[in-house]
Write a structure and sequence with these properties.
The protein has 244 residues and is an alpha/beta fold. The chain is built from ten helices and six strands, in the order βαααααβαβααβαββα. The longest helix has 22 residues.
């Protein structure tokens, strides 16, 4: 079947991987800001608590496939530290927390050229990103000038479910009114991206530029339709799957 649409992941697919060390830095940055802005008397304790709650939220999301917004662990840690937890404070804290991630984000080589090439084939382009903040993904894609390629741009924070839940994939398929076999999911994670796409009948491309350590658990049970080690390989693969 001709390919009519491509859905991209963001982290470790179009931009470089981040890890726990960046998460620790973000917790420290927010804790220091909380000390200066809201009078936190124990910023080290706040940073430690926040990281622990963030990790626990990830674990729960991995189990039940429901997203836990970034403001949830922030509110928990702020409440424990006796800090305000009103909406305006949490929104400001969320912005401060994710500023290092936005600032440090870097596109992979060939990202823009690949997006241009597949858009030039007349394909629909969308994004589905697991993220605890919708604004984070908007800011990263906006910073690098790629946000306009994706319609829709869906995050688990916005949708409420994380990949590999089938609902987040069918949400895009229904918006496009396209059959699953005519759409390709491109991502770096065997469970979230590849297994999730296959569950609803889509094809897949695994981006293995920086191999995801979590993929080892699924290497024997989940096989992508194709695998690339550079983004420049994607357009030719898509062409071979259709008659464009």
């Amino acid at each position: 079947m001709t390919i009519h649409g491509i859905i991209f992941d963001l982290g470790s697919t179009l931009i470089h991987r981040t890890g726990l060390e960046l998460e620790r830095e973000q917790c420290r940055v927010l804790a220091d800001f909380a000390a200066a802005e809201w009078g936190c008397t124990n910023p080290e304790g706040l940073a430690t608590h926040l990281l622990a709650v963030r990790v626990e939220c990830w674990r729960r999301s991995d189990e039940d496939l429901h997203e836990h917004l970034a403001t949830e662990p922030i509110a928990d840690a702020f409440a424990a530290a006796g800090l305000p937890t009103d909406e305006a404070t949490l929104r400001r804290a969320e912005d401060v927390f994710f500023e290092p991630e936005v600032r440090n984000s870097r596109l992979y080589p060939g990202a823009v050229e690949t997006l241009e090439a597949v858009r030039g084939m007349g394909l629909q382009l969308g994004m589905i990103s697991n993220a605890t903040s919708h604004r984070l993904i908007q800011e990263i894609t906006g910073k690098h000038g790629i946000g306009g390629y994706f319609d829709p741009l869906v995050t688990s924070a916005q949708f409420g479910r994380i990949k590999p839940h089938p609902g987040i994939f069918t949400h895009v398929l229904e918006a496009w009114r396209l059959p699953p076999r005519s759409v390709v999911m491109i991502g770096d994670t065997l469970r979230a991206d590849i297994l999730g796409a296959h569950t609803v009948g889509m094809r897949s491309i695994l981006v293995d530029i920086e191999p995801n350590p979590a993929n080892a658990r699924f290497a024997g049970t989940t096989t992508p339709t194709a695998r690339v080690t550079s983004l420049e390989e994607i357009p030719s693969i898509v062409r071979t799957w259709g008659d464009r």
